[in-house]
User: Which sequence fits this backbone?
């Protein structure tokens, strides 16, 4: 029996897989930046722009699509996650002002990376457990909304 495209797009738990994949992608971008910042400033700048773009899109989608459900499930975790996004935004604003040859740039990006990695760890160890308690239809709806929002951003 063939599944409809919509059913295939929204398998149970897919939102968690989408989040994990995006988390892995941004961690890899940070690693590449670390490698390039010493030897290839132009490539490092391109990677940094990609990191910022990916983080901004991810956090906006998370806050709009995932966090409302998280708030109902665990209010403390919701507020902490929200504040971690805020701290990342503050660091990004500072990083964007720095030229690629600024001595503080690599250090600020490292602090951002450490904050993001901590945030990812908490999401994957705590938030995902909370999300798994949601119904299949709620998880599917989130996955579809996420894909729609990401496609709209890419268009």
Assistant:
């Amino acid at each position: 029996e063939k599944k409809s495209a919509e059913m295939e797009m929204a398998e149970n738990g897919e939102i968690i897989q989408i989040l994990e994949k995006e988390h892995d992608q941004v961690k890899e971008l940070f690693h590449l930046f670390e490698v390039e910042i010493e030897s290839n400033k132009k490539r490092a700048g391109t990677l940094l722009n990609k990191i910022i773009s990916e983080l901004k899109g991810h956090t906006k989608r998370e806050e709009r699509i995932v966090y409302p459900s998280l708030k109902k499930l665990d209010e403390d975790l919701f507020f902490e996650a929200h504040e971690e996004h805020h701290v990342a935004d503050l660091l990004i604003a500072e990083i964007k002002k720095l030229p690629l040859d600024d001595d503080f740039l690599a250090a600020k990006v490292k602090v951002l990376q450490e904050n993001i990695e901590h945030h990812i760890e908490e999401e994957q160890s705590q938030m995902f457990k909370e999300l798994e308690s949601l119904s299949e239809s709620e998880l599917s709806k989130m996955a579809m909304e996420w894909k729609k929002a990401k496609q709209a951003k890419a268009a």
